[in-house]
Amino acid sequence: MLKGFKDFILKGNVIDLATAVIIGTAFTAIVTAFTDGIVQPIINTIPWSPDQAAGLGFNIISDKPSTFVNLGSVITATINFLIIAAVVYFIIILPYNKLASLAGFGGEKELVATEVDLLTEIRDLLDPDAAEKAAAAKAAADEEAAAAKATAAFDKPSGPPPAVAPLPETTRISTPPP
């Protein structure tokens, strides 16, 4: 039981995840300090109302400062998110995908060879002309199938037989001769 837990903990994915959480937390502190110390004061200088002490926003009820809607903090949080997302993408995701594609692993599924594919490959290795012979045989079979299909189209009617109109009934009126 403890061996399985040890194997789980020592897998690369868990260690990578722990490292990412630690680095992400430290980076979030840096970005928050940047946005609070530099971006927020710049946003607060935008003229919005005569009372700029609270920052960019408005009061829902003008007499109560507790009803202040702080738009500057929303803008700062959005900028904070965009900075973190861009850094994570360009510093972590993009290089990882590049390394994964170079190493031959990652998001793409590897094709599993079937028995027929393996046997064909072995045959081609043993007899270099086998691939050409197989291609010629396949082309001949395709031509025969196309010819059979073309002649079958002429031999069989292409649809139901045409409808035949019924003959009109003749009605005789017998009149006695004069």
From TrEMBL:
Membrane topology note: Multi-pass membrane protein
Q: Name one GO cellular component term.
A: membrane
Question: What InterPro entries would the database entry show?
Answer: MS_channel, MSC/AndL, MscL_channel
**SUPFAM superfamilies found in the cross-reference section:** Gated mechanosensitive channel
Task: Return one GO MF term.
Answer: mechanosensitive monoatomic ion channel activity
Origin, by domain of life? Bacteria
Give the start-end ranges of region Disordered.
148-178
Question: Where primarily located?
Answer: membrane
Per the record, the coiled-coil ranges are none
Question: Where does the UniProt annotation locate this protein?
Answer: Membrane
- Give one Pfam family: MscL
Q: Which UniProt keywords apply?
A: Cell membrane, Ion channel, Ion transport, Membrane, Transmembrane, Transmembrane helix, Transport
- Provide the transmembrane region boundaries: 12-34, 68-92
Q: What is this protein called?
A: Large conductance mechanosensitive channel protein MscL
Natural source organism: Gordonia desulfuricans
Q: Give me the gene this protein comes from.
A: mscL
